[in-house]
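User: For a benchmark we're assembling, each entry needs the component sequences followed by a predicted structure for the full assembly. Here are entry 17's components. Please fill in the structure.
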Amino acid sequence: MISITDHLPILLIAIPILASMLMVFLKGSPVLQKNLNVFIYLCLVIFSIMLLQNVWTGGIMVYEVGEWGKYGIILVADLLSSGMVLLTLIISFLSLIYSLDYIEKRSLNSTYHSLFNLLVAGLNGSFLTGDIFNLFVFFEVLLLSSCGLVIANEKGGVTKTSDKMEATFKYLVLSMLGSIVMLIAVASLYATMGTLNMADIAVKVSAASAAGTLPWHIFAIALLFIVVFGNKAAIFPLHYWLPDVHPTAPSPISAMLSGVLIKIGVYGMLRVFFLIFRDALPMFQPIIILMALATIMIGAVSAVGQTDVKRMLAYSSVGQIGYVFLGIGMGSAVTIAASLVYLVNHAIAKSMLFLTSGNIIHHAGTRDMHKMGGMIKTAPIMASVFLIGAMSISGIPPMGGFIAKFMLFKAGIQEEFYLPVAFALFFAVFTLFYMMRAWMKMFWGTSNDAEAHDDDPSHASSLLMIIPIIILAIFVVVLGLYAEPLLLLAQATSEQIVNPQPYIDAVMTRNVR
Amino acid sequence: MNSTFLSLTIALLFGIGTFLILRRDIVKVIIGLGILSHAVNVLIVSTGIFDGTRVPILPGSHNDAGTTGSVFNDNLAEGILSPVVQAGTHMDYVDPLVQALVLTAIVISLATTAFILILAYRIHEEYGTTDIRELRRLWG
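Assistant: Structure for entry 17:
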């Protein structure tokens, strides 16, 4: 009897890959394609909830692809992986529903569905894999599919095609350089340690460290990994592609990119530095904290000067990811728990804001905030959900963002990082300023909507576009008012991250059959 | 001796690739990326050459470990970090795993290069130039 719960990790990767092929063949029947894809995503959300529940009750789950024990590719679902998979699938399910009415028919029908499936397969794969080369492969899968999705056309064509080309070119070249750096790091790690399994590398590095024979170039490899994951997460010296790519992508894809894709870098940092290089960690903590603070500063200061609503949200993403990295850099269980709470809150609030901005742009026919105004009368729902998101991002009490910021600063003070916390707190005020200024510019004042757009049916906000936003807004409020389950999960997860022995044991007890 | 030349080749390829991606022409940048990824491929292959103390290849099938004396499971209590082979085992192989890795890396770089070439063609259509300094409509 094959139980479905035993095969959840592979199903979460295999179903999207198979579905992406199926979507190409179903090009002839768009309605079936749409409904089937939505159904598949509903199943995947249910599967990921089952996976998280399984891992919560039954401990870390290891799935061998083949019978080669630690020598083959293994999938490991611990609390961090399964939590990230659940977050990914919730956001991608809602983005998919939103994009059914937002993306242009031809683009949606021909490539969008299959690329979207590949993107989700890449994300799930990178969260679940326990093999560092496999992580690289899934990074490439999600990179190429996200490039294809950035170019997808939305209805109405507010963003010019040439802008999309330019942004994608920057994104692709930088990500290719990032993956070359990652390959160098993985090859050097393999040449040093003789294995690609992350748990196995961790055992060998700590054995070498205990014996005092840790080679010096392990530190160089760790620095290369900072470059790789920093490039994915867009932290300070490597952030400049993000404000070009995230605004030019269609809004549901911006939501995916800002909500989930930059979190891949955070995940990789947590996995690689707290599992493999945990003996070398004290050396890298100041570097991570310094880069996080620079990221916070750059993101906050640049977001203030933006007139384009989506570009402002993208710079805000840069700043917010800095707060997540600040918690990681402080490196104790409480601060990591805080930064995980921050990550979840930012993912949900920012993807909601990007989806809302898609509606606003369609309503106003422009992305320039100076040309908008008075939309509180014509689009009251959008005004209220944008306010909820803006309050959450800037950390005003009833919303989830307040809990996250409060946890982070409290944990930082508890761990006696006074100066970084003071610095971060100062730039949190900037967040409040630019989010509220954007809200007032767009929704208050005199109305100067582009009148012509009201007649054009392609710009109408349909129910399919409003419902996902409202669901995400409910999530934001609920995470603020009833945050205990999330806090509990984050604490358990961060304890697993800080003490990776259960992870190593779960993988290494698999014998070669 | 051999590996000195190999290292020099890898270094030279990295140098050429880095030089090319700093050029202004999009096509040169793409060629530079291709050369860089090949430099990495050679680097990966070169890590598979080693001097015979740790043999990763299983003689026979992987169930034969008991008869050959190879150890594939860790035993941390006794300080054994697998894979371990019998002392004196010598095999004239290079590591086959890195070659599998290189195949994967080559296929991936083929796909990305194909995509970026098409992108370069479309950029040439939209902008009428392949000068990378003209691609600055999004700055600021």
